[in-house]
Amino acid sequence: MFKTSICRAAIAAVLLAMTAPGTLASVVLTGTRVIYPESEREVSLKLTNEGDAPSLVQAWIDDGDPNATPENAKSLFVLTPPLFRLDAKKGQTLRIIQLQQALSRDQESLFWLNVLEVPPIASSSKDPQNSLQFAFRSRIKLFFRPTGLPGDADSAPTKVTWRFVRKDDGHHVLTATNPTPYHITYTKVEATSGGHVYSNDAGAMVNPGGTVEFAIDDASPVSGEPAQVSYTFISDYGAGVSGVHNAKPTQEAKGQ
C-alpha cells in the first residue's frame, strides 16, 4: 500500500514541477548538504514540518541516479526511519549509518539524500477520488569524507587551476581543474582577461581530480590562464563563500 502511494506521489511530483513552480513544500531540511566524516559512527539530519497538516515522508539515499526509487536505489548507507508520519509543527531526525563496505580512501565519495513529502488529501475536497495531490521531493548531496585527506574542503578552491580553452566550434570556455580530493560546488564565476570580465552564474560542481567547463559570453578571450578569477563556492555549512584566484606572474615578469 505504501509503495503504491509513493509511486503515485512521485508522478504527482513531476506534474508539480511542470504546473505549480510557486508552491512550497511543508517539510524543511535543516541543511543543504550532509558531510559524513569516516570517523563518525553515524550522522543525522533534522526535518521539520512547518505546515498546518501532517505529511507522510519517505527518505532514501542513491549513488547519483535521480530516477532511482527507494526500491532500486544503490548506496552504502542505511537511513532510518525510511518512512514515517510527520505531524504539523513537529520534527524528525534522520539517522544515516554507513554499511561496512569499502569506499575510496583517497578522495570524497558523493551520494544523494532524497526526502519525499506526501501531504494528506484536503478534508475540504468534495471529490477526493478526482482531486490532484502534489508531492514534493528534496534532493541534497551527501559527501563521505575519508580520514586523513590532505588539506581541507574550505581551502580546496584555492588549489583549482583556471584556463580559457578554445573549442572546435571557435567558442571559448573557462575550465576549472580540481587537483584536490574534495568536491567543489561553484555558484558564480567571473574571469578577467584583457580588461574584459567573462561571467557564469549557472554554477557547477567540480569532482575530485576532475575538470569542468563553464560557458562564458560570446566575446572570445585569448586562450590561456585568466589574469584573475573571482568565484563563490558552497561551504560544508551550505553558505556561499567568495574567493579570488590570481594568475601567477610569468618568469619574464619576475625578472623585471
From TrEMBL:
Its main location: periplasm. It comes from the Bacteria. InterPro entries: Ig-like_fold (IPR013783), PapD-like_sf (IPR008962), Periplasmic_pilus_chap (IPR050643), Pili_assmbl_chap_C_dom_sf (IPR036316), Pili_assmbl_chaperone_bac (IPR001829), Pili_assmbl_chaperone_C (IPR016148), Pili_assmbl_chaperone_N (IPR016147). Residues 177-240 form the Pili assembly chaperone C-terminal domain. GO terms for cellular component: outer membrane-bounded periplasmic space. Keywords: Chaperone, Fimbrium biogenesis, Periplasm, Signal. Residues 1-25 form the signal peptide. The keyword Transport does not apply. It is found in: Periplasm. Residues 26-149 form the Pili assembly chaperone N-terminal domain. One of its GO terms (biological process) is cell wall organization. The keyword Signal applies. PANTHER family: FIMBRIAL CHAPERONE YADV-RELATED, PILUS ASSEMBLY CHAPERONE. Belongs to the periplasmic pilus chaperone family. This is Periplasmic chaperone. It comes from Cupriavidus metallidurans (strain ATCC 43123 / DSM 2839 / NBRC 102507 / CH34) (Ralstonia metallidurans). The gene is fimC.
